[in-house]
Automatic annotation (TrEMBL):
Species for this entry: Postia placenta MAD-698-R-SB12
Family: Belongs to the PUF3 family.
Protein name per Swiss-Prot or TrEMBL: Pumilio homology domain family member 3
Domain PUM-HD: 28-369
Compositionally biased region (Polar residues): 387-400
One BP term from GO: nuclear-transcribed mRNA catabolic process, deadenylation-dependent decay
């Protein structure tokens, strides 16, 4: 989409661009900006555009030029740029498709006094800016460079609307940045997450915010959230977003929390392995469980059901469970390794003999079996691309 068709959301009392404004500014370029765009052979300097800094900042090429120059500008040059933007034009540029990058550079390269003054122009508008496509980027940058007192002011403005921010495509990034950068005792909005863990974990943006909490906050803040999560683990495993939160606990949580999640899989391995999203959790559990728990999980998929049907055969045929079987073959240890291989081999032979649907995942299983043979040397490694997705992703290719 052309930047001239982007819609600018204007917080109450905030000066910004509507679509017509963006289109209009092309028609009313100053002769200086026109010359800048046309005459690239001239050696332009920041002083050449004094009096036109705001216009240049809102232009694609002018903005890029100012950004580059601010990185090496003298303190006097930065002050001249700053004085043309702040305070009158700061909010306008913060929300601008090109201007927001200039504001970010002022936070990166300005003096602490300049950063404080610049951030003060945003006060009273933090919520609408956090929800705006370009403003949210500037708010995140401000969090990195302002002093703790101003960070607290920013947090206070978002406190009453934190759940709204968490569930917003732009606002969630601001909340994540605050969790990463601000001391937890200053994050008063954290109390709003209690009682809402299931709701957040099953939300495409909320699940990311929860993971940042578990990653960056100390135990006293995360324990109530994790305890609440344990109450919903069975359902979260099967949710398209919740499964990532459960995987995060398996990979980064305390041993006791990992053990609780693994215990929820006991007796349900086949069912969960065949589920589009829970299969990812099964794989992660096989990878992260302690040796004894892993042995129990693998034993479960080796044991025939009451009707005599082999879980292994069912898993080999299933589009999701076959990945769990591959993972089991890649992590199984000791005498259980050959026992599992002995149960898989005849099933694989029968499928090759009687089925025309000899798919790539059966080839992968066959290769893993070769490594499981007593004569094979070296460690068994997971099949490439058969692992669970990274936690920063929202959906894996398997889940699309």
């Amino acid at each position: 989409m052309s930047p001239h068709h982007l819609r600018f959301q204007q917080p109450p009392g905030v000066r910004g661009h509507r679509r017509s404004d963006v289109d209009h500014r092309v028609a009313i370029r100053s002769p200086l900006l026109d010359e800048f765009r046309m005459n690239r052979s001239k050696k332009w300097e920041l002083r050449d555009m004094m009096g036109h800094v705001v216009e240049f900042s809102g232009d694609q090429h002018g903005s890029r030029f100012i950004q580059q120059k601010l990185e090496t500008a003298t303190s006097e040059e930065r002050q001249l740029i700053f004085d043309e933007i702040v305070p009158q034009n700061a909010l306008q540029l913060i929300q601008d498709v090109f201007g927001n990058y200039v504001i970010q550079k002022l936070f990166e390269h300005g003096t602490q006094i300049q950063k404080t003054i610049l951030a003060s122009t945003m006060e009273g508008h933090i919520l609408p800016l956090s929800l705006q496509m370009y403003g949210c980027r500037v708010v995140q940058k401000a969090v990195e460079y302002i002093l703790p007192e101003q960070q607290s002011t920013l947090v206070q403005e978002l406190e009453a609307s934190v759940i709204r921010c968490v569930k917003d495509a732009n606002g969630n990034h601001v909340i994540q940045k605050l969790i990463e950068r601000v001391p937890p005792e200053r994050l008063a909005f954290l109390k709003a997450f209690k009682g809402n863990v299931y709701d957040l974990a099953t939300h495409p943006y909320g699940c990311r915010v929860l993971q940042r909490c578990f990653e960056h906050l100390p135990e006293e803040y995360t324990r109530p959230l994790i305890d609440e999560l344990h109450k919903h683990v069975n359902h979260l495993m099967q949710d398209q977003f919740g499964n990532y939160v459960v995987q995060f606990v398996l990979e980064h949580g305390k041993p006791e929390d990992r053990a609780i999640v693994v215990s929820k899989l006991r007796g349900q391995m086949l069912h969960m392995a065949r589920h589009k999203f829970a299969s990812n959790v099964c794989e992660k559990a096989l990878t992260t469980a302690d040796p004894e728990s892993r042995r129990f999980l693998i034993e479960e998929i080796m044991t025939p059901r009451q009707d005599g049907v082999s879980p292994i055969l069912t898993m080999m045929k299933d589009q999701f469970a076959n990945y769990v079987l591959q993972r089991a073959l890649s992590v199984v240890e000791g005498d259980q390794r050959e026992a599992l291989a002995a149960k898989v081999r005849p099933q694989l032979t029968n499928m090759r003999r009687y089925s025309s649907a000899y798919s790539k995942h059966l080839v992968a299983i066959e290769r893993l079996l070769e490594r499981c043979s007593p004569s094979a040397s070296g460690e068994v490694t997971p099949k490439e691309n058969a692992g669970t997705p990274t936690m920063s992703e929202t959906l894996s290719s398997r889940q699309s």
